[in-house]
Automatic annotation (TrEMBL):
PROSITE patterns: EF_HAND_2. This is EFHD1 protein. Keywords: Calcium, Coiled coil, Metal-binding, Repeat. Residues 12-59 are annotated as: Disordered. CDD domains: EFh. It comes from the Eukaryota. One of its GO terms (molecular function) is calcium ion binding. It comes from Polypterus senegalus (Senegal bichir).
């Protein structure tokens, strides 16, 4: 198994480091380990954990499930769906991220081309995990910042939000200066959210009823031709 081979190589490397002059820590010496040994120990732990996961003896950590409808409550379901549609449109690699080149194509199609440094700065402003690309959640952060008035008027992100044709005029939930105004708008957004869910349920109920009626009519017609 590849992980076992890596673990063996790592153990040999640790032994080589010790034989090259890394003295064992005694009670009279500093309890801190050399940086290289600390890094090697961390890598060894990672490899052993990976090996345990592969063998089924260790359970992988559960990733936190991202729900845009609960985390970005300031936007309606329609707005979030529009943002998701736009994100998928420009995620040409279909890997769940918009990288630098995909962002370059997006800004060019929106009519606001950016320099290489400008594109990197755009990503940097919302890149919470520092991986140099935009996840769907980080993409939504652009519109949150735009709605809250937290973007520079001449910035690339502001141009993206303005030219996207996605209405984020709900500013006030995060950007309102008055507490009571923000509270009223938050309640209004929550009410609209509930209304949209109710409308979707009503539509599903209507379609189901039509389906049952068509099925009943078909059976009635079928019985008329059955001797």
């Amino acid at each position: 198994m590849a992980s076992e081979e890596l673990a063996i190589k790592l153990q040999r490397r640790l032994q080589a480091q010790q034989s090259d002059g890394v003295e064992p820590v005694t009670g009279n010496e500093s309890a801190e380990k050399p940086p290289t040994e600390n890094a090697s120990s961390e890598l060894s732990a990672m490899l052993l954990r990976r090996q345990g996961i592969n063998e089924g003896s260790t359970r992988p950590r559960q990733a936190k499930i991202f729900n845009p409808y609960t985390e970005f409550k300031e936007f309606s379901r329609k707005q979030i769906k529009d943002m998701e549609k736009m994100f998928k449109q420009y995620d040409s690699g279909k890997d769940g991220f918009i990288d630098l080149m995909e962002l370059k194509m997006m800004m060019e199609k929106l009519g606001a081309p950016q320099t290489h440094l400008g594109l990197k700065q755009m990503i940097k402003e919302v890149d919470e995990d520092f991986d140099g690309r935009l996840s769907y959640r980080e993409f939504l952060l652009i519109f949150r910042k735009a709605a809250a008035g937290e973007l520079e008027e001449e910035s690339g992100l502001m141009a993206l939000a303005r030219l996207s044709e996605i209405d984020v005029s709900t500013e006030g939930v995060l950007g309102a200066r008055d507490f009571f105004e923000a509270k009223v708008q938050a309640l209004a957004i929550g009410s609209r959210f509930e209304e949209e869910i109710k409308a979707e349920k009503e539509e599903r109920r209507r379609l189901e009823l039509e389906k049952k009626q068509r099925r009943a009519a078909f059976k009635e017609l079928q019985s008329a031709f059955t001797p």
